[in-house]
Amino acid sequence: MQNIQKWRIEASDMVKEQIAGRDVRDPRVLEVMSSVPRHMFVPDERAGDAYIDRPLPIGECQTISQPYMVAKMTELLAAGPGMKVLEIGTGSGYQSAVLAAFGLRVWSLERIEVLAASAREKLTSLNFDVTVIYSDGSEGYEPEAPYDRIIVTAASSRIEPAWDRQLALGGRLVAPVNVISGGQRLLVREKTYHGFRNAWHDYCRFVPLLTGMKGL
Ligand code: SAH
Q1: pLDDT one-digit tens code per residue, 32-70
Q2: How far is the CA of 89 from the centre of ligand 1 (A)?
Q3: Do residues 103 and 50 touch, judged by C-beta distance below 8 A?
Q4: Best CA proximity match to 152, nearest among 197, 93, 216, 109
Q5: Is 135 known to be catalytic?
Q6: C-alpha of residue 114 to centroid of ligand 1, in Å
């Protein structure tokens, strides 16, 4: 019991200091970020660090994104309840849980089988309704297309044609993209009747999007 309260206090401090304390304003995002138990998505030995302002290692040379970045990307998605979302890069499953808690229907793709399996198990045990698929996300996931929103949580130098195709008209994609000047920036890309419209946001640092799959 005491443990439950402790994480809720930590999560609420995290939201105040790191998220609302920066520039995330959407009250729905702030609420969801304080309701999802981030400590359940990090390795046991790092649970004590779950609410600090940092990405953390989750094995397989991958990381759970920094809380601020998860909140920022969720806000930039500007999604409404019931929308269909495709996530590329399940990792720990934390971002997927945040999206599900937001009321979205989530399909999430992961190219490393052990991460896909452990995220799937965790999400199910915590009752988050997310479909995790072990696959190379550069191809998107055709069977459920089109998606109202696509969120990419690994960085690449281009937007994959499959993502553009599988995005619904009026839909929006948020992705970290390598920029020529160095580093990465969050791209918000909207699919309109007149083609795609891009807007560039925060600098960020994500692990790279890789091709192919890595089995057990
Ligand atoms: N959203 C995650 C962040 C994970 S880091 C979280 O909240 O924890 C990015 C993840 O993208 C890694 O797990 C990595 O294996 C995965 N990834 C990289 N390239 C990929 C690809 N082509 N298809 C699917 N997943 C990919």
Answers
A1: 999 999 999 999 999 999 999 999 999 999 999 999 999
A2: 3
A3: no
A4: 109
A5: no
A6: 12
Query: How much is the pTM?
Result: 0.97
Which amino acid, one-letter code, is at 160? Answer: E
Quick one: DSSP state of residue 74? H
| Axis crossing angle, helix 27-35 with helix 94-101, rounded to the nearest 10 | 120
Task: Say yes or no: CB of residue 122 within 6 Å of ligand 1.
Answer: no
Per-residue tokens: 95 = 């971002």
- Burial classification of residue 100, based on how many CB atoms lie within 10 Å of its CB (0-12 exposed, 13-18 middle, 19 or more buried): buried
Give the span between the Cα atoms of 48 and 207, in whole angstroms: 23
**Each residue's pLDDT tens digit, 142-167:** 999 999 999 999 999 999 999 999 99
- Treating both helix axes as pointing N-terminal to C-terminal, what angle do 113-125 and 94-101 enclose, rounded to 10 degrees? 40
